[in-house]
Design brief:
This is Sigma-70 family RNA polymerase sigma factor. One of its GO terms (molecular function) is DNA-binding transcription factor activity. Pfam families: Sigma70_r4 (PF04545). By secondary structure, the protein is of the alpha/beta class. It has two domains: 51 residues; 195 residues, Chitobiase, domain 2 (2-Layer Sandwich). It is built from seven helices and twelve strands. A seven-stranded mixed beta sheet has the order 4-1-5-10-9-11-12, with helices on both faces. Strand 11 and strand 12 form a beta hairpin.
């Protein structure tokens, strides 16, 4: 039932997007109503009630959202835990999905996980946490992660630039960077978010929440970029901005 409900919402989004496209092509809303055999009031209702076009950034839904399950020692035993900033990033993504009328589930990304789950999903995970992240990055023709003696960086193959995290280099600097990609994989969408540290993931999720209209390109099978964010001593993101991209197959 959830899957069919999600598809009904997607059909409403497509209808709204089609009306707006027709209007941008030169038709008035009165003319559109006449061609569809409905009233102009019904057109206004569709435009106001259907979700935004950017809903499709995350697919049709339901969307599974995953963060790494980490392990640490407590009382002499190794115990699983979730990083609090990863959890904040997941909550931010879930808030965004709720705003877009997308149903969701969540799941742990174990350290040996190699593949995303079935269906539309959001993977919030860096390459050092699980191989699923590295496998997704290897399929990205534009951006990737690299590790050397100075730590992790995000590498831009278009410019040959290496983007490093100020926070990784000096933890008194409260600025980090993160990566995002949105790709089509058959009939589903995979969104990947990865920070140099977990606060970089949170900053990227926050930036996407506020700027989906800037990055959503429905005709591109891949969209990605790099986000820089500032945060306070409690690891609350105070500002975020696009550092690289958005890159698409069409640009």
């Amino acid at each position: 039932m959830v899957e069919y409900q999600q598809r009904a919402i997607e059909l409403a989004r497509l209808r709204k997007a089609s009306i707006e496209e027709a209007h941008l092509s030169g038709l008035s809303y009165t003319e559109i109503a006449e061609k569809l055999g409905v009233t102009k009031g019904r057109i206004s209702q569709i435009r106001s009630s259907a979700p935004r076009r950017e809903r499709a950034f995350f697919g049709v839904g339901p969307v599974a959202v995953g963060i790494p399950r980490r392990f640490g020692r407590e009382d002499g035993r190794e115990r699983p835990f979730f990083d609090a900033t990863d959890e904040a990033a997941r909550s931010t993504v879930e808030e965004t999905l709720t705003q877009l009328s997308l149903a969701m589930t969540n799941f742990p990304i174990d350290p040996d996980q190699t593949r995303p789950p079935e269906g539309d999903c959001v993977i919030i995970c860096g390459p050092k946490s699980a191989p699923v992240a590295q496998n997704l990055l290897e399929a990205d023709p534009f951006l990737g992660f690299d590790h050397d003696d100075d730590g992790w960086s995000i590498v831009d193959s278009r410019t040959d630039e290496q983007h490093r995290s100020p926070y990784q280099d000096d933890n008194s600097s409260r600025t980090d960077i993160g990566y995002f990609s949105r790709r089509t994989d058959g009939e589903r969408i995979i969104v990947h978010i990865a920070g140099i540290t977990s606060v970089g993931s949170l900053g990227t999720a926050r930036w996407l929440q506020d700027n989906l209209d800037q990055v959503f390109e429905p005709t591109s099978a891949l969209i990605d970029g790099v986000v820089e964010c500032d945060f306070d001593e409690d690891f609350t993101v105070t500002n975020s901005r696009l550092l690289v991209g958005p890159y698409t197959e069409n640009t």
